[in-house]
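Preliminary data (for renewal application), iron/sulfur cluster complex.
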Amino acid sequence: MSGKEKTTVKAVIDGRQCEFPQGITILEAAKSVGIEIPHYCYHPGLSIAGACRMCLVEIEKIPKLQISCYMTVGDGMVIHTDNERVRRARKAMLEFHLVNHPLDCPVCDQAGECGLQIYYMTHGNYLSRLKENKVKKTKKAVQIGQHVMLDQERCILCSRCVRFCQEISKSNELGIFQRGDREEIDVFPGTQLNNPYSANVVDICPVGALLDKDFRFKTRVWYLESAESICPRCSRGCNIEVHYNLAKPWKNEGRRLARLKPRYNSEVNDWWMCDEGRYCFKFVDEEDRIEEPLIRTESTVRKTSYKEALELAAEGLRSIAAATDKEIAVLISPRAANEELYLLKRVFSDQLPGTRLVFSSATPFEPTEDEILRKKDKNPNTKGAGLIGLSPDSADVWQLSDLKDAILAGEIGALYVCYHDIPGLPEELSAGWAGAVERIGLVIYQGTNHCATSEKAQIVLPAAAFAEREGTVTNFQGRVQIQRRAFAPLCEVLPGWEIMQSLGAALGGSYAFGSAEEVFAELAENELAFAGLSYEIIGSSGCVANGAKV
Ligand code: SF4
Ligand code: SF4
Ligand code: FES
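Predicted structure:
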């Protein structure tokens, strides 16, 4: 043998001669060539437990069946993943897993995406030989943390949840107690499953033993549709799926957005997301959503069309621009997508040059941070705003403190607020001047939900929420990622980029973008940091912006 180390191995798997990297497990090797081996305890993000025995395969010259999640591919191995002996073993293992499993499917939230149901149909399909009653009587529907419900009877003891708490959250709340057929999953005495990543155990539990308290009994999973998106709650930009059910009418009777689930991206969040992000979506279907543009006078507030509201806004802004002693300020939020920020910058510099652009990344959220995923900056697009030239580091962009001084000096005649709630800002930022905003002649508020600022603004422009519009956000690494539109906005509500385009038109400009993608195409042409990018190139997993690599 030469001194050079061998890095690949050759093996025959179900009759196919294949080459695999050395050290790969049989289960992963099979998956890489399109062969799915059933498994419960194996999870690519966790250590190997070898607990469920569902992944048994036959390897020629080894007398006993082997677990493929643990066994690595050896040079010259001949592996059978689907012969009669393997199928019989799988069926027998499934029979063991189901022998004491309660007949809960009709009332179990996991039904429709349950590993037991799926494998019974694909690998079990036997007639029950059980004549006795089911014997397990353990805890049912116990709340073990703020977000998670435990049903011990349904647990198949795969230990994925235990390993998650040991290896990922490192919080160690869960354990397997007792021995033999009395084994059960539980939290350690005096502990609750309240780590910041607790609901990931619901995602990885292959059965209905760990359920999401918030999602429980809301809808059947087969009514759900899904769209790829990016978590809007912090600058990590975890890749997620938005699960929604449009059969649920909005308000009182149900919510359209049913749940957020993490989506694998090895560069950003692996398989996980934090609880703050997972449950941040409630505002989308909250009762306080702004449904129509509003015009407010001292004594009245009335609903109107975007056309009238934007014409009035344009008229007010133009008259302040013409005044010699007053200025226009726009308070920008990195909650907005790149397309919206780009058009905002373009419209104000084309139509109302001299407008003061003010940037603040302040949010009402606690600046939690850790080594796992959570970032202190609770905005999804601070980096994008910076790359478009809208951060306080950019020339001519004001900080919140500059705006405060100008407002207190009576220099601001019109204030356009995007997504920020000024009185709702942390006290150290808003103290002493939030009330002064009320004395500004024209306040225009653009956002998704009512807040103290919208309650005082003369013109209110409702904007689509992240799940109701298409757009890109740039995470702290400079990775540009797409938030896909899951469902149509409420009533006639417009996405932010379209509001900016219409405002530009009302101010006398000519803008003719047909979609967020078209806006992005122009952005990529004009902003060096985004050069060469397009929605197609960004794709599902995102793409690092030019020159933004960290
Ligand atoms: S609760 Fe779920 S994830 Fe945890 S051991 Fe039981 S089946 Fe596995
Ligand atoms: S770490 Fe940030 S981006 Fe990821 S899920 Fe949590 S809040 Fe969302
Ligand atoms: S997946 Fe291999 S033993 Fe569970």
